[in-house]
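From the shared-data thread, chain only:
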Amino acid sequence: MSLSSFRFAISASFTSEPIQHVIDFWGRRLGATFEVVFAPYNQPLQTLLDPASVFASNTHGLNVLLVRAQDLGGTLDELAGVLRGAAGRFSVPVLVCLCPEAGGTALADGLAGVQVLAAEEVERLYPAPAPYDPEAERLGRIPYSELYFCALGTAVVRRAHALFTPPYKAIALDCDNTLWQGICGEDGPSGVSPVAPLQEFMLGQRAAGMLLALNSKNNEPDVVETFAANPGMPLGLEHFAARRLNWESKADNLASLAAELGLGVDSFILVDDNPKECAEVAESLPEALAVALPADVERIPAFLGHVWAFDHPVVTEEDRNRNVYYAQARDFGREVRAATNLREFVAGLGLRVAVAPLGEDRLSRAAQLTQRTNQFNFTTVRRSEAELAALEGACVVVEASDRFGEYGTVGLMIFEAAGDAIEVDTFLLSCRVLGRGVEHRMLAWLGEEALRRGLRFVDARVEETARNAPARQFLQSVGGHPGPLYRFEAAALRGLEWSPATSVSAPRAAQAKRAQRRAVDYTAIANELATPEQILEAMRREVPATDRAGMSEVERGLADIWSDLLKRPSIELSDNFFDLGGHSLLAVLLILRVKEAFGVELTIDDVYSSTLTLDELSRKVEAYQAGGVDPAEYEALVAEIEGLSDEEVQALLAREDLGA
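Structure, as tokens:
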């Protein structure tokens, strides 16, 4: 699943329509097509239960609940109960946003297909001063300020991005002026100053499952001595899965690291202090992400916290153990290379493969496998937890271990009976266990399952991609004819085991043709769109104002507000607010914006009129600014003055001067 043609279905316990402008803004910034649909006002429970609701009909996107406990009778217990029964029926995940005053954050913990975004998390990422707007809530049940809706909408889009964008898997780090301030080859191992916040952040990324590597232009002994001379640094050499410390180009080193770790280059993020180095990597390897750090070291923690590529909304047990698994893979590879008889080596592995039905406790990992696995994947169909939970066919997970250790959940198979065959919808395996015979045991299990059901064949359909050559090679090696449909006699698969003729390894070098990620300028987002104020300002700049020549200061200010609310660059004095697309909600927002811009508190009656023109509204604002004069009296006075001749105006001014 991706963010292209992506639907946000929103149900809220308050008026939430202002969030749409924020989501639309981020769709344009991310180069994605976002659609936003709203459930009826204040019906979150009904939306969850109704089989015809906007949640039930959403097949590609995110269902978003925006709730406050006070709107639901002061408790979230009923909502939690309804969620337990409803979430599994939807095709897409549910994101529950606990908005300010919503109480605790334990709601829906551990529910398949449910994510929770707490008010504290929104505040941590995008603090908005004075989020409440009592006047807006009184006028239109809009409880939050424009700035807070910017914060909330951005946090929702950011979570969706993290859930549905293929994740990065490894971070390559520069050393001098990145991991530490100073140049270890010149200042000496003890003369550098560790950048502790950056190192702590990277340690957290490692704990969340990211592999760390060094990619730096240094003499390797200097770097090794620097780590030894600074034992108090959060990061040590033992935290890095691989390293390239030389004077080669960082792009070449990145490709070499990818080959060593068995990853695609598009799995890497390079973090470097040098914008030139980052630009060169971006030019040579556009599928990798190169992140240039701010020159001001004090800004680094906030900057890293707003690089969306580092987000991990779901961290599984396999993520926490990923670095252990890669250490096991290195040990395995070392012994394979030293083995004199490969058949005897594999036979002596003590391989254990367990196949079991997909349970709720493995949903997160299973969904993650569909998102992450590219090389040994028959179809590369991506699925969310909710989609997996709603599957009607059989779905099993595969766990593996051998004498090198436990590997956790490494495979997934989805299939169903059709005619005289088992049809395989999904067959995937983590590349870190390729070459041990796990894939053979999985195919043998499908053969046994077909025979148990009285079926004759196992049919596997393969979609050819730029990355899944190992999967196609495997099927051909065990006797299948080139696809897209590979058919096997179920009886022939019984007892299938690894042999040198059917051996498949993960590619050790980057593919000549690599899938391109959607281009997202994460660095610009972290630098320029990290606060609600920056986001709101960027949103307002998106509709450029046309020439306002001849307008008064108030008229120009109101025209800018109308342009932003109505998304129309051209506004004339004679334009009617409602004829241009205004409605009751926008009328409330207009009142709030006028108060913000001019310090004038309009009433609903002032704006809720079918004849409201920009000219009329400007006169009302000027009347209030004049000291509380009734707008009708002010307009009559203005009309009387406009009817005076130049001589009469001069005479009036002369009398005023004499009176003074």
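Confidence is low (pLDDT under 50) at residues 506-516.
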